[in-house]
Amino acid sequence: IRFTLLTSSVALALASLAACGSNPPAVTAATPPVQQTASAKAASAAYDFDMDVFHPVVAKNGMVATEQALASKIGLDILKAGGNAVDAAVGIGFALAVALPNAGNLGGGGFMMVYDAKSGKSVALDFREIAPNNATRDMYLDAKGNVVDGKSLYTHYAVGVPGTVAGMEHALKSWGTLPLAQVIAPAIALAESGFPVSETLAKILQQEKKTMGQWPATRDIFWKNDEPLKMGESLVQKDLAQSMRLIGQQGAKAFYEGEIAQKIAAEMAPHANALSLQDLREYKVVEREPTRGTYR
Questions:
Q1: pLDDT range class, residue 17, cuts 50, 70, 90
Q2: Which is nearest to 288 in space by CA: 144, 130, 41, 122?
Q3: At how many degrees (to 10) do helices 164-175 and 85-99 cross?
Q4: Mutual angle of helices 164-175 and 180-193, in 10-degree steps
Q5: Which of 82, 107, 106 is nearest to 93 (CA)?
Q6: Which of the residues 2, 87, 142, 255 has the least number of beta carbons within 10 Å of its own beta carbon?
Q7: Is the pTM of this model over 0.90?
């Protein structure tokens, strides 16, 4: 704080001295602010529309924290069964693909910070989505260079090469102790049997009704009687359960080269330069050196 105040005082003093000089200060035109498209503004506003997410919990021997209680319980059960933190994290990652469909999913990506007590090494695991090989800087612009509203959000060209499945497998093989089939099994069971839609998920489904209603496959899963699922109704995801079953049996290869990859590629094929089978096959997880700093 002292440094900030001192810097501000020096800057103010210099500005005052400059104002007393004989030469008037040069005037430069301000750079116009970047304008978001209507779709981008709507998406930003919708993301955190309901901030009722703070529910403190106290524990003595350890804790699992996620945005969904069903996923947290799966992580806790893995720890109780003798798994380590990475085993639990991977199990949770797949569980959130089931229980938190608005955020956690197999088609996304992420980061994982891992500290290996044996080696004393910290790793920043990067399994975020990447752009397809044929993506270009102007792919979301029209012939006049203007942004095409919604193209980067709600079309096949909004899809990056997913990293979640590769990242989960990499973490488990590198630092976990349990087999993939075991840690993914609870998520498969949850998707197969279903679970009651929470109040928060029901609100999100209703809010996204217009967007989700465009896709028949989405309506088949998340809608009932021509309306989004309501609180208390059961969300069953048998296709997702089958996809995770294949991943549990065959590993990430099922997603990036096998049956799942083939179906993704077939869906994307009619859209020139969108995600391809080659993009999926070439995806790589990256172990990065964490950025370090000091505080106080």
A1: very low
A2: 122
A3: 160
A4: 140
A5: 106
A6: 2
A7: no
